[in-house]
Amino acid sequence: MTELLTSAELFGNVAPLLAHAADFAEGARPEHSATYGWLLLFTPLVGAIVIGLTWKKVSDRAAGLIGTAAIFLAFGAALACFAQLMGMDPEERHILAGYTYAQAFGVDFRFDIYIDQLSVFMALVVTGVSAMIHLYSVAYMKSDAGYHRFFSYLNFFVFSMLLLVLAGNLALLVVGWAFVGAASYLLISYWYRRETATAAGIKAFVINVIGDVGIVVAAYLLWTELGTLTIPSMLANAEDAFTVAPSPEYTAAALLLLVGAFAKSAQVPLHTWLPDAMEGPTPVSALIHAATMVTAGVYLICRMHPFIEISETATLTAAFLGTATLLIAATTALVQTDLKRIIAYSTMSQIGYMIAGAAAAAYSASLFHLMTHAFFKALLFMSAGSVIAAMASNQDVRRMGGFRKAMPFTYVVFTIGALTLAGFPFFSGFFSKDEIISYTLHRGGAFTVIAAGMYIGAILTAIYSMRAVFLVFHGEPCDEAKQLEGGELAHGSPVNPATGALEDTDVGFPGPDHQIAEREGEMRTAMSVLAFLAVVAGAVQIPGVTHLIESWLEPVFEDSRYAHDIPSIATQWIGLGVGAAIALTGIAIAYWTYVANRGVSERLATRFGRLHELLSNAWYFDRIYDAMIVRPASAIASFCNNVVERFVVQGIVEGATGAAKSGASRIRSWQSGLARVYALSVIGGTTIIAIYFLVLAK
Amino acid sequence: MNSALTLLILLPLIGATIAALAPVKQVGQIAAVMTLVQIGFLVPILIDFQVGVELQAYVDEIWIEELGIHYALGIDGLNIFMVALTVFAWAIATFWAATKEWEQPRMFYAMLALAEAGTIGAFVAQDLILFILFFDLLLIPFYFLIGMWGEGDRRRATGTFMIYTLAGSLLMLVGAVAYGVISSYQNQTEISFLLSDLAAAPVGGSTQGWIFAGFALALLIKMPIPPLHGWMPITYRSTPLPVLVVLSAVVAKLGAYGFLRVVLPLMPDAANNFQHVLLVLAIIAIIYGSVMAFSQDEARMVVGYSSVAQIGFVLLGIFVLDAKGAEGALLQMLNHGIVVVGLMLVIGFLAARSNSERLSEMGGLARSAPIFAVMFLIVALATLAMPGSANFVGELYIIFGALSDQFVYGAIATIGVPLAAVYMIRMFQKSMHNREHAEGRSRELNATEFGLLLPAVLAVLALAVYPQFVVERIEPNAEFTVEAYQPSTAVAGGGGAAVSKEADE
């Protein structure tokens, strides 16, 4: 027994030491409290719970206001965190606080939040854009029978996203990571009586879980190398670890982190859930599947950058798959006919830029693009929601047209969004995208190819984004547009736009009425703010003029080996010039094809039938996965059910039963007649034994 | 003599006796209320529990001197939460049963209580023969519970259940007797079946082999691990749901517990030799159970096969022979017990709304039942080991343990994680979401149903917020149990190097 005690004692001594090591940042600077951080994190959760619990008692409008207010408060808390960090010495700007969550055997799984430049930057983007989308939703979801549920989920999503961003422990990051996956699942299948929506939900959930597993295994590998899961300690230990040649464990860990990043950020080959996720209500597409959640992969790469950078295999993999994604998605977006899917593919494509950029160590450029993309992509989805509402839920761009006059406000902001996406000179997307490209080009070597891919993607982007504008707003007004010009909002019978199946308008299906930005103050406000930001946000980072994001984030990335190896200002301006030329060319091509020479695109589609088929089917990924995974899995399942269970398992049962036939018949006779007597004797016997122990065994 | 544990074993029987004195209509209610007394009795034991490897509330009385059989009971990190789970699950099962009508209720509740007494006894027994005695004792009431109050082809079910489990028990009993006799012969000690005596005087390596085989068969049947799960589908279909709550949530865990309490400490050489056989079985259980679970139409079979997959993770955690794996396995045994209680209740409530337990005959049941939907969702997400639940912590420790010592098995086992998402979300979706089925009618939980499901949901949430409560209490024993297999035992895994590094700074 003494031996056992020794080891227990030994562990007893080690555990607090370890806890102390994990707590060092917190313990060393008690004056920097994490109160604002906790407020930031938990305000949205409180909002979600309050709305959930009061769903019978408060009106829809009140629920919407509570939800929106919670996010505005969180944004305020994020600003407070920002101010707090500003008041600190630039090199000291980090706060770590939390409690022991599940710690044993050196696995320091703690509930720690980590407030630093990067997490505050992300928190500001997330809460800022979320606040606008909540505001938009207050009006947009007005007639939906599940209004409370919607806002409760939306608040829960923001909480999850903040948990992901603020996590100071890699295992806790996985928790936030999975929570956003769950929130995304709930919101994709928000109209839960729609079978297309629930199918899309489970697909998204399962692919996201594959990503979670990747990060968990990566966490294990990093933990064995570094001995901690506390992110700041991991980053601090990274330097020591990297003086030696990278072990295969580091390469594996980097690749597994990428699996997580790719699943969440919808990058090839784990991207197929994102287009389907458009089954969710449009504000969900704007918030989760464009502005925030899907950029989590970029955040992960930036947060864990030393562990990605260490492996050339990982950076090249990320760069090439990111580029492949941006090209595959951009070409697919060229021929899609569903308005939301066009924007969804453009999201995939834009995140491809960020991933490839982060792989090229252009971290602040990628994060800059993450921010501008959040503005203009949320804006595009919001405007698309307005159009779809005017079309009485129809999402087919071939049926749309000429909305320019009927919806002037929507037209203006949609065009701003599309131009920003296209990289129109001096709009925000122009600066952010071209910064990524110049940095990537500057890396040279294989990254030259990546940069070339990015330029090809840029021209495609300009074409498909303006194609949407021209198809929807230009040309002959469609019936719905004419109706709206007459002041009447189109009103069709409720159907599933994907299948045409008839629906009702009760909970679990969309509500009866549609809301357009032209008529709703909340929607107009939110869209105006985002349109303004989409246009001017580039001003924070103009080569040679401003570098707000770069200098704010500098301490986070100063340990990058490429931190000081950056393109000159002149080179960056040349890049901007090229970018402008490409964007304008793309816009011109789109104008020529879809306005000046209507019908050209149809002729091209017939001429290149095969190619058009390939792109319409999004490069056949779904079909390949169906043949490779879904169908084999169900074949295995039916084999297990029909063959293994029937013959192997039941064979044993029948065999055993047959062998003990006499015993079985005796059991049957007990059961029919003497059951009670037998049962009583069992109870009696047990009681006697029990009394023996209690009374006599002393 | 510390009689706390003896009393804990007897309390169910006392409760059943008091209930039996009541008029037939009130038997269930009294029996249910008596389970609260047990909880009241258990809480101080939980509070008094000290973190450490030693047995607490220990009792050791010589029962049959000539045979070296002791009446020894004790709790430590291995069983404290199993005992708590037993009391918790039985309380809910009894309350649930009390809402239904049973023929011969006195007999029913007596059998239910007897099964509980046997289960608690088996969990706290510290003598090998006593363990097996309790282990077998609890089968008899289940035999009657299924045979007399079961559904469908209950005759075949009881037959199969009995034959499987008796075959296993017999092997185990023979192995146990042999172990005691051979140990005393080989080590020239006086015969004793006290587990600590046996562990101090283990039998030789070659003898361990066949004794291990007997024990492993018995325990694997109970868990159950394919291909020894033949009794499970038939038994699950025939067992009344309140009884299935305890059978699935608690009794199945006894198999895993037997490995930790008996097999690893007494047969370390054999456990090492057979490690890969058990690991392969664990992987089979994870994959096969998951595949079966996502292709079942009967809701309770989805849960049945999902339990096979989950207990496969537990077996993996045990047989990677790493402290982290054992930690995860112990935590997961508790977590899984709690979610199964919730899931069985959910199945009962779903069936009450759709007049069927078939997923193909359900749909859209969330429509008028948001509270039900949320509670079901919480339980379902915990079952699939959603990060943020304690189930994730358990799975994380199992996977970390497996990757530390048996990387390939650990890597293969991770396939089970997304598969769990498939089968649980599928079950949630097919019942609560999609269009309504013509036969079904969505209805919110009534007060009784809410009251039954709430404790399970609260337990899931409480463990999700602060799993450390459990983690630190089982840690010393998790380490102790697999200590014999570790070359250096101070701190397992790669954490050791880093600790010293950080300490240097």
Bin the strand percentage of chain A.
Answer: under 5%
Radius of gyration of chain A: 29 Å
End-to-end C-alpha gap of chain B = 50 Å
Largest interface: A-B, 94 and 107 residues
User: How many DSSP E strands of chain A?
Assistant: 2
Q: What is the gist of this entry?
A:
The complex is a heterodimer of chains A (698) and B (505). Chain A is mainly alpha-helical and 698 residues long.
Give an account of the 3D structure.
The complex is a heterodimer of chains A (698) and B (505). Among the domains of chain A are: 316-483 and 515-616, no CATH class; 625-659; 665-698. Helices cover 73% and strands 3% of the residues of chain A. Chain A has helices spanning 2-22, 24-28, 35-53, 60-86, 117-140, 147-166, 170-188, 195-226, 231-243, 248-264, 273-276, 282-291, 296-303, 305-309, 312-335, 339-359, 363-390, 403-406, 408-422, 428-443, 446-473, 479-485, 521-536, 548-557, 569-596, 600-607, 609-616, 621-659, 661-696, and strands at residues 94-104, 107-116. A two-stranded antiparallel sheet of chain A has the order 1-2. In chain A, α4 (60-86) runs parallel beside α6. Chain A is globular. Chain B has 505 residues and is mostly helical. Chain B has a domain at 275-484. Helix content of chain B is 73%, strand content 3%. The radius of gyration of chain B is 22 Å and the shape is globular. Classes of the chains: A mainly alpha (698), B mainly alpha (505). The interface between A and B is large, with 94 and 107 residues.
